[in-house]
Amino acid sequence: MSKSHLALEKLVALRQQKAEQALAMIKAEIRESEEAISALEAQLGELDASAGDYESFSLSIRFGAPGRISEQIEAARKALKLKQDRLAAAQLELKKAIHSRRQLKTESAGGPSS
């Protein structure tokens, strides 16, 4: 096997490793975002009039807590959507890297080139 072919294999392996790491990081970010949304939804649920005393509920309504929390939930959902889009792009990048690696192995084995 030639030196250039070995170098190309190393580059493709590094590309795959980088794609796998990016994918793992984005998945972790998505889990964190989902947990944050769940916490905000729980916080909003705690403001329900039937869950506590009327005075606390009245104060939270007066100072706009439900609206503020709803806005935070909406912003977190938009951020989550962007992260999911990044996840799809990272998955595609990993798929390309895996395909490149397989193609190199096929070529080095003397198989057909596609």
Short overview:
The chain has 114 residues and is mainly alpha-helical. Helix content is 85%, strand content 0%.
Could you say what the CATH architecture is? Orthogonal Bundle
CATH class group:
Mainly Alpha
Average of per-residue pLDDT values: 87
- Helix-strand category: mainly alpha
The percent of residues in helical segments reads over 70%
Q: Might you state the CATH topology name?
A: Helix Hairpins
What can be said about the biggest beta sheet? none
Report the β-strand fraction as a percent range. Answer: under 5%
The outline comes out as rod-shaped
The residue ranges in which pLDDT falls below 50 over 5 or more consecutive positions are none
Q: Number of folding domains?
A: 1
Radius of gyration: 24 Å
Count every helix, treating DSSP H or I runs of 4 or more residues as helices. 3
Number of strands: 0
Order of helices and strands: HHH
Alpha-carbon distance between the two ends: 19 Å
Model description:
This protein has 114 residues and is mostly helical. The protein has one domain: Orthogonal Bundle (Helix Hairpins). The chain has helices at 3-46, 54-62, 65-108. Helix 1 (3-46) runs antiparallel to helix 3 (65-108). The longest helix has 44 residues, at 3-46. The chain is rod-shaped and about 80 Å long. It starts with a helix and ends in a 6-residue tail after the last helix. 2% of the residues are buried. The model has no long low-confidence stretch (mean pLDDT 87).
